[in-house]
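User: Hi! I'm working on a homework problem where we have to compare a predicted structure to a textbook description. Could you give me the structure for the chain below?
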Amino acid sequence: MAPQDIVIVGAGFSAAALVIHLLKRGFPASHLTVIGHGLLGAGNAYGCNSDVFRLNIREDLPIIFSEDPLHFARWAKVHVDDHDAKTHAGYFYLRRDFAKYINQLIQEYDPQRQLRQIPANVINIQQNQTLWQLALDTGESVLAKNLVLATGNMPPKWPCPIHINANKTSEKLAAYSLVENPWSGEWVQTINQTDDIILLGGGLTALDTISALENIHHRGKIYIVSPRGKLPPEQATWIRSQKPLWPSQLTPRTLVRFMRSYLPDASVHSVEWQCAWEELRPQLNEIWQGFSAQQRAKLSKRLGWLWSLYRFRASPQSIAAFQKLKQQIDIQIGRVKEVQVNDDDISVNLNNGTRITGHWVINCTGVGVDGLAENLIINKIAIADALGISIAVNKHFEVLRTTSTSWDNLFLLGPGTMGSLGDVVAASAIAAQAERLSLQLKTRGQRASMDRPLSA
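Assistant: Happy to help. Predicted structure tokens:
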């Protein structure tokens, strides 16, 4: 196969956002190759079959085009028939409808279907002179002039060992009653209404799971295992009305001190508190990037859990579902140590000695591992970021090969850049990255064309 101009690894939202912006800038679809499975743009976040898994943000916040921030809101009003989307805090649409929106954008920019998508996984990346050679699990090999890693949020993995008794009954029980990745929503079709459910984790995924259970009128016990026992607050009708006057020469300590002083003495569920919180957020990425790797690691270790709690607030529909099942829900404070599949049930052992038994265990921790990123670090193509969760990049999304040098044709886009660039998880933040990177790649392509010698 001839070298491809741009190869994008991943087929979720991060990859789709970059494709959309490249096509929008006039980059030929035939010069793009996407490597990944499934509907381009769906991924783990939006590839849901559930009728209740919703975006946790209102309709005006998933911004794909900076010059037209309400594009999705207008599209949804025309193309989505969902009376349950409307709440007091805005419209919260289904995740699968957002995937349809993204895929329709791709089709509009590539009506001839010239974009090539290879349904495969990349198992290895290595240099081949000035190119990148990708080995796929299909046995194919792809050469890339420019390579963009856009794998997004990896499928969650079990956060603890799973022990299965060596008999057929236990093996059968495990096959149906252990849900490692709940994001598709298919598991809910096989749950009995009276089954006892154990959820590992208490974030948005747990609330989505509870919404799915409420939708089938579940009557069994629901255990939530959470290290601190706190669930995400409900989204309020917040708006940003002013910009904070940040002090100069911030350190992690003065950052925390200023944020505490700026936030009002009010409930985190209130409009007042959430307005102030959201007014702080726009400058935080720039501040984060000014900190050293050691400062970032220290700040994340100390306050990362609190940031996630207040940053990822829930849709009103999810909170309503929780309230309906509240009498059946038992929140267990602790960390899961191991899961044991027995002859007739499943037990979860916590680090504090507590033992919980049920019929199903659903992994809602959201913890995934990017094996490809780990491979690049092991092979010394990349270095780890400050948080040790992905590979490090500079502000141009170029993968760092050392702390001071980077590749000029290897890029990372999306949630994996969080350790280097800050809060890059929301669709709008990822789309903003894609918009900037598409301009860089388009400019680079134009320069390459100008540098080519004229034919005789």
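For your comparison, note the following. The chain has three domains: 4-154+369-451, 162-233+313-363, 252-311. Confidence is low (pLDDT under 50) at residues 450-456. Good luck with the assignment!
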